[in-house]
Specification:
Elements: E1 2-4, E2 9-11, E3 15-18, H1 25-32, H2 46-50, H3 52-66, E4 70-75, E5 81-91, E6 96-97, H4 100-103, E7 107-115, H5 124-139, H6 154-162
Antiparallel strand pairs: 1-2, 2-3, 3-4, 4-5, 5-6, 5-7
Length: 170
């Protein structure tokens, strides 16, 4: 992949990972209101149905606060929005969302992902999440990444293992 540092763009063979844009809102709504896609990551987000533009703005605020956040995953061949992947910052003392500045030495980046169901099974998640993992270690000087995966979420567990992660605490 290549990185355009100032624009935060990662490119893989089939995908472009870029900052979220207002035009992503309809696809974001579709993902975040799909009960199957959201089963293991907080369930359906009612706010996404009523104001997906606000969700996109919040994702961009994470970038402003931390210099990292969710990337939109877009298929290179047709520009279609596939999902999101990126870093979320937790305070390891309380396991609440925060910023690097807010948690200080207790800041723990999580590598997360969610793809629209129609894009499952094509290897997009492995490709995109692997690119973000490599970027986080190389460009953000992250020392350790975690992925909070529900015990019943076997698909995500397999993806994490393909990318070299090992099961930790539950």
């Amino acid at each position: 992949y290549t990185l355009a540092r100032m624009r935060f763009i990662l490119e893989t063979e089939r995908l472009i990972l870029r900052l979220p844009e207002p035009g992503d809102a309809p696809a974001v709504r579709e993902l975040l209101t799909d009960p199957v896609a959201m089963e293991f990551i907080g369930g359906v987000h009612p706010q996404a149905a009523s104001d997906p533009e606000l969700v996109v703005r919040r994702w961009l605020e994470r970038w402003d606060d931390n210099g990292c956040g969710p990337f939109s995953i877009v298929r290179r061949e047709d520009g279609r929005w596939v999902g999101r992947t990126g870093l979320l910052i937790w305070d390891a003392r309380t396991w609440t969302h925060t910023t690097f500045a807010g948690a200080g030495e207790f800041a723990q980046p999580e590598l997360g992902w969610a793809l629209a169901r129609e894009h499952w099974g094509h290897g997009y998640a492995t490709e995109a999440v692997g690119a973000v993992r490599d970027w986080a270690y190389a460009e953000r000087d992250v020392q350790r990444l975690v992925s909070a995966i529900a015990p019943a979420n076997v698909r995500s567990q397999r993806l994490a293992e393909r990318l070299g992660a090992t099961p930790g605490e539950t």
